[in-house]
Design a protein that fits this description.
Rossmann fold; Dihydrodipicolinate Reductase, domain 2; six-stranded parallel β-sheet; alpha/beta
């Protein structure tokens, strides 16, 4: 069995609490197991590392170094705190072992570029993604309907309590559809709803709406075909399958250019929140 290690900011959080079950239910359950976990600090009211590891049948690591030494693949979590990813991933990215970093990948483009540079310097395979990228509905739309067509306009919708943490899911899907090359964004929402336009300055645009309690939806209009997805059901288990495949092959399913663009759009979108109805250029 190949060993997986978790590195987290606070281990008792939704992703860390659900990934182990999906690993045990995956098609590669006889090849991979969660073996070690480490957290940077405990949080009042949550399980300690030792309690969490007992519940998930893992070994509490004394350091990130131990996780890296003992494991074949490392998952850097902290999904609500992308600002700590660079610190938590520092030692794993020097290891040469495959590293998955949870979303949002980084708080800004400069950090994203540093993370990729470090991984490349040490020959460390790495990727990061929103799970929405891997849902069967969107994968089918891209591979079977749109194929190589240029998407002229796309629009996504979804829920979440904050633009900073939850817009990544929609931005990931839009970049899948539109590709790279975004130039500027505009925030024009109201109240608790964020509405962001993304302009490619080439006659192509896309838009996203973040509304509390809204289910994920996506539509895209290409040169010949239009796709509409109103239900997304299996993205998390399919993402775990992709992570396990990556740990085996060491080949990322997501190109770094997509990930850096997603971070750049998110960074500009956060800046645009305080400049409503004005275009904000991507760095």
């Amino acid at each position: 069995m190949k060993k997986i290690g978790f590195v987290d900011y606070h281990i008792d959080e939704w992703h860390a609490n659900n990934y182990p079950q999906w690993i045990r239910e995956s098609s590669r359950k006889d090849e991979f197991e969660l073996a070690y976990a480490w957290q940077e600090e405990s949080q009042d009211g949550l399980r300690s590392l030792e309690e969490w590891c007992k519940d998930f049948n893992a070994t509490p690591a004394s350091s990130i170094e131990q996780v890296v030494e003992e494991c074949d693949g490392i998952i850097v979590l902290a999904p609500s705190n992308p600002e700590v990813h660079e610190r938590l991933a520092d030692i794993p990215l020097q290891s040469g072992k495959p590293v998955y970093i949870d979303k949002p990948f980084a708080p800004d483009k400069a950090t994203a570029e540093r993370l990729f540079a470090k991984a490349e310097k040490h020959g460390t395979p790495m990727f990061s993604s929103s799970a929405l990228r891997f849902g069967s509905e969107i994968q089918q739309a891209v591979k079977e309907t749109l194929k190589d067509q240029t998407v002229e306009f796309a629009i996504s919708a979804g829920g979440g309590t904050s633009f900073e943490e939850y817009s990544i899911h929609q931005i990931e899907m839009l970049v899948m559809m539109m590709g790279t090359g975004a130039k500027r964004v505009m925030q024009c929402g109201s109240g608790r709803t964020s509405q962001m336009l993304i302009d490619y300055c080439s006659g192509r645009r896309c838009a996203m709406t973040l509304m509390p309690g809204h289910g994920f939806q996506l539509s895209a209009c290409a040169e010949k075909d239009t796709v509409t997805i109103n239900s997304m059901t299996d993205f998390f288990p399919r993402m775990i399958e992709e992570i396990l495949d990556f740990f085996d092959t060491k080949c990322s399913p997501v190109v770094k250019e997509d990930t850096i663009e997603i971070v750049s759009i998110l960074e500009a979108g956060i800046k645009a929140q305080v400049n409503q109805d004005s275009w904000i250029d991507l760095d």
